[in-house]
């Protein structure tokens, strides 16, 4: 995805998240279910498997992602792009909780910062700075 679109997605995600309270309350009724996921750690195939088994986020399919989206795996940035896109499309059905890997120092140690810089050589620093701002 071109850096311009990534930066735009990050900007819109940040704007949306700033409007939300620190604590999210997610409730269901008897006809709905919530899928709770955690620790994707850059494993895009795992995210796709979750969507394959449970369905894509939609007005009738809510998800809570409990952090640790990035680091360790090779597709952390792609996971953020997918999750942030679904968050903006379905703001009432997709909930993102920050984990300890959504931290700049942890990203430096466990590989996410390096991944971003390798994928976006020219705009990597700007994208990484914006991601840290979103986190």
Automatic annotation (TrEMBL):
Question: What EC number(s) does this enzyme carry?
Answer: 3.1.3.16
Q: Does the keyword Metal-binding apply?
A: yes
- Which reaction is this enzyme known to catalyze? O-phospho-L-threonyl-[protein] + H2O = L-threonyl-[protein] + phosphate
For this protein, the record's PANTHER family field holds: SERINE/THREONINE-PROTEIN PHOSPHATASE 5-RELATED, SERINE_THREONINE-PROTEIN PHOSPHATASE WITH EF-HANDS 2
Q: Which family does it belong to?
A: Belongs to the PPP phosphatase family.
Q: Which GO terms describe its biological process?
A: negative regulation of MAPK cascade
Under the heading SMART domains, the entry gives: PP2Ac
Q: Which UniProt keywords apply?
A: Hydrolase, Manganese, Metal-binding
Q: Which InterPro entries match?
A: Calcineurin-like_PHP (IPR004843), Metallo-depent_PP-like (IPR029052), PPP_phosphatase (IPR051134), Ser/Thr-sp_prot-phosphatase (IPR006186)
Q: What is this protein called?
A: Serine/threonine-protein phosphatase
Q: Name one GO molecular function term.
A: protein serine/threonine phosphatase activity
| A Pfam cross-reference name | Metallophos
What's the cofactor? Mn(2+)
Which domain of life does this protein belong to? Eukaryota
Record domain Serine/threonine specific protein phosphatases: where: 97-102
Q: Write down the species.
A: Chunga burmeisteri
Which residues does UniProt call coiled coil? none
